[in-house]
Amino acid sequence: MSAMIFHPSLYDRRQYHTSYWAAQNPAPHLEALQADIQTDVAIIGGGYTGLSCALHLSRDHGLETTVLEAGDIGWGASGRNAGFNTLPACKLAAAEVFRRWPEAEARAFFEAQREGQALVYELAQDEGFELGACGQGIFQVAHSRGALAELDEEGRWLRQAGIPCQTLSREAFAEIGHDGPDQFGALHMTEGGGIDPMQLTLGLATAARRHGARLYARSPMQQWRKDGAWHVLQTPQGQVRARQVVVATNGYRDGEEPAGLRHRALPAISNILVTAPLSEAQWQAIGLNNLSPMSDTRMLVTYYRRLPDNRLLLGARSDTWGDPQRDARMQAALHALIARKFPDAGPLAVDYFWRGLVSVTRKLVPSWGRLDDDPSVLFTLGCFGSGVNTMPWMGRTLARAIAGQPLSAREQCAVFRNLPGRLPSRAWQQRLGLQLAYLHYGLQDRLA
Ligand SMILES: Cc1cc2nc3c(=O)[nH]c(=O)nc-3n(C[C@H](O)[C@H](O)[C@H](O)COP(=O)(O)OP(=O)(O)OC[C@H]3O[C@@H](n4cnc5c(N)ncnc54)[C@H](O)[C@@H]3O)c2cc1C
């Protein structure tokens, strides 16, 4: 059993999340598993990874697929993220990716991210669902002069990897993005943009079901045993026998998981606040007219976007406990971040505040693979707060691997392969590790 390293309320599936996206979209109502069934592939987790894998397995490969979700569909990060369908999908600078892996592998890694970004729009178009797409690309906003120089260097590497982007001076970004004491210019990656993450989740779920996948909500996999070549996954009211299993739980690894996957990924809390709709005068005071997602260059990154209905969304990590008593403190911290970026914004009413878990690993890039000691178990690990473009793509990659399709250079790229190194096993050690990392990052941010 993996430990819940944060307060139990962060893992409580009895209630759906209180996100802005949940309020904008119909609640997903699916039945729980109430029988013993057999399937080709069982998928644990009903987020982008699991739903995309189910969609591709049933639609493209004709395999019987069953998704088990412990909460309701989209209860995890996929229904509650910030909706940045943008790059980069890792915590490493592009130069570092090129340093750690051979050039062809590094290139394949960035091409895969671009392909994943495009896949989101393709899936919506092919399967006929809305995405609430807005903005053009992402602005990475320098929080200091030194950070702008680093962004310029990052841009050079990204362009070498085939990613369209350009560096903007402080003045140029003030024209098309925003001004203020916390911007020193920006890197504009011109592809992708903002989406409604819940629409993507629900669209994938509806499409997967239409193509024959079986999806069960409120059906946590509680026990996992082998019976010969079969995997037997036990839920409270029924069991699934499957030839192959996909572990698609990402940051929510509070249930049973195979020994090979234990302590490979660490959850980290991300917090989001969405204001009430702002008046034109308030937007003028803030000075942000662009609907493209933005994030700053701090290691403890702040991400923000103006939503199409004139609200401001802003999110950031920190807090290593997650208890509800800290909600007010976290909201105050997010308000302070707004004031740092937009000092003339004045007090802003908040309509929504919520939290969620992202998954981080020692490798600092996402991974997928099969377990060495049981290749009939496939997994993904480590989305690093950038799973919108990566996880639907990884779900498709897993489906193609399961179906025995020849994989492209991007899909089998070495950057994604190999399990990340093990982390300390105890919850307090993991929390302490996060606390030390945040202290270190905070110091780095102040010096940069
Ligand atoms: C606050 C926040 C903001 C983010 N913003 C962005 C962003 O703007 N752009 C971006 O690219 N990425 C963002 N991310 C990251 C992105 O949301 C994730 O990478 C992505 O959604 C992960 O998808 P997934 O399907 O792998 O996992 P999830 O969507 O987290 O789904 C995993 C599911 O597994 C289920 N589960 C766990 N254990 C069991 C079990 N035993 N039985 C059954 N089910 C189980 C969980 O209930 C959960 O629903 C953000 C994440 C958070 C939390």
TrEMBL record:
Keywords, sorted A to Z: Oxidoreductase
Against Pfam families, the record matches this protein to: DAO
Coiled-coil ranges (or none): none
Q: Which InterPro entries does this entry report, sorted A to Z?
A: FAD-dep_OxRdtase, FAD/NAD-bd_sf
**One GO molecular-function entry:** oxidoreductase activity
| Residue ranges of domain FAD dependent oxidoreductase in the record | 40-400
Q: Which cellular components does GO assign to this protein?
A: cytoplasm
Cross-referenced PANTHER family, in alphabetical order?
FAD DEPENDENT OXIDOREDUCTASE DOMAIN-CONTAINING PROTEIN, SARCOSINE DEHYDROGENASE-RELATED
From the Swiss-Prot or TrEMBL record, give the protein name. Glycine/D-amino acid oxidase-like deaminating enzyme
| Source organism | Pseudomonas fluvialis
Q: What is the lineage of its organism?
A: Bacteria, Pseudomonadati, Pseudomonadota, Gammaproteobacteria, Pseudomonadales
